């Protein structure tokens, strides 16, 4: 394994003091020796900055700024990064101890691959594991047409991906990561590392619980319109846009907006009627309506 490769991990933090120490400790506990770790406080009003600063004497670079949003914060960190491989870690998530070494090995073994991603655990607010999530093997068709985002927590990518794409789109708030992968896939392949190497935390402040503002709920539609506008061929465009409409429907449903949810769902079926034959599409909408209650029940069950 090429131990000489430097890996830069960036954690943007906004009001996550409760979970940040566990996130930082998970990076400092890696079995890979060459890690540059940058934590950027994005104008938090809680003790997040103070928590991060406690780790400066252990080699963590801690920066602070006025609130700029996750995308701008990550781009700042990656611009400052010295590593040949880059990653981000949300301030309430964690890496398992062999995550970095495993992802470095995967990228070193596959020079044709630009991005490596892994399976991960869902954990509750206290860090207890709920279940393992097995990511799909990579398929550009599934990403670009079916809108299945295979990379999740614990994804790593080559520096060239950031240099050539410019990083996350700072105008986006709901799907900047997905839109970044849509551009990254044009630069090289992705590979799945079939190990659970990260932990995604579910808690009442996480994205799974939040009410999504109406403009953000619709953000995926603009992303996919721009994506297809850049392509000469439109093979799969209608299917892709129908799935974007169904995602917007789920986002509205999660936020309690029944009529917009049903309107977008009806539009999705009109554009691509075969979606009606997929049980997952109906389940997506129903889970959207019940999502907050669903995850609260999951968390309560984990405490029993």
Describe the structure in brief.
With 304 residues, this protein is of the alpha/beta class. The chain is built from twelve helices and nine strands. 44% of the residues lie in helices and 19% in strands.
Please explain how this structure is put together.
41% of the residues are buried. This protein is 44% helix and 19% strand. The protein is globular and about 60 Å long. It has twelve helices and nine strands. The longest helix has 25 residues, at 279-303. It is of the alpha/beta class. It has helices at 17-28, 48-53, 70-80, 99-109, 140-144, 159-165, 176-184, 214-217, 219-229, 237-254, 258-271, 279-303; strands at residues 7-13, 35-42, 61-65, 85-88, 94-95, 113-123, 129-133, 156-158, 189-201. Strands 1, 2, 3, 4, 5, 6, 7, 8 and 9 form a nine-stranded mixed sheet that branches. Strand 2 (35-42), helix 2 (48-53) and strand 3 (61-65) form a beta-alpha-beta unit. The chain folds into two domains: 7-201, Spore Coat Polysaccharide Biosynthesis Protein SpsA, Chain A; 214-303, no CATH class. The mean pLDDT is 92. The protein starts with 6 loop residues before the first strand and ends with a helix. Helix 10 packs parallel to helix 12.
């Amino acid at each position: 394994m090429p131990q000489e490769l430097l890996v830069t991990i960036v954690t943007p933090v906004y009001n996550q003091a409760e979970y940040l120490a566990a996130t930082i400790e998970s990076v400092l506990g890696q079995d890979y020796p060459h890690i540059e770790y940058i934590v950027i406080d994005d104008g938090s009003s809680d003790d997040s900055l103070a928590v991060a600063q406690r780790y400066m004497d252990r080699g963590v670079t801690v920066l602070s700024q006025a609130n700029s949003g996750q995308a701008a914060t990550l781009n700042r960190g990656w611009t400052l990064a010295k590593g040949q491989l880059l990653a981000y870690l949300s301030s309430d998530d964690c890496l398992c101890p062999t995550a970095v070494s495993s992802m470095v090995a995967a990228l070193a073994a596959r020079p044709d691959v630009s991005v490596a991603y892994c399976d991960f655990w869902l954990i509750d607010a206290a860090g207890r594991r709920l279940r393992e999530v097995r990511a799909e093997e990579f398929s550009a068709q599934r990403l670009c047409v079916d809108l299945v985002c295979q990379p999740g927590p614990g994804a790593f990518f080559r520096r060239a991906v950031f240099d050539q794409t410019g990083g996350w789109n700072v105008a986006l708030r709901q799907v900047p990561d997905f839109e970044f992968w849509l551009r990254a896939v044009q630069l090289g392949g992705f590979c799945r590392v079939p190990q659970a190497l990260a932990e995604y935390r579910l808690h009442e402040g996480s994205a799974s619980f939040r009410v999504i503002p109406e403009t953000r709920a619709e953000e995926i539609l603009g992303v996919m319109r721009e994506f297809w506008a850049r392509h000469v061929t439109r093979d799969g465009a209608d299917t892709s846009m129908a799935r974007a409409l169904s995602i917007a429907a789920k986002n509205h449903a999660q936020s309690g907006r029944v009529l917009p949810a049903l309107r977008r769902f009806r539009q999705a079926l009109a554009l691509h009627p075969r979606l009606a034959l997929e049980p997952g599409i109906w389940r997506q909408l129903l889970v959207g309506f019940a999502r907050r209650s669903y995850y609260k029940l999951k968390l309560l069950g984990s405490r029993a």
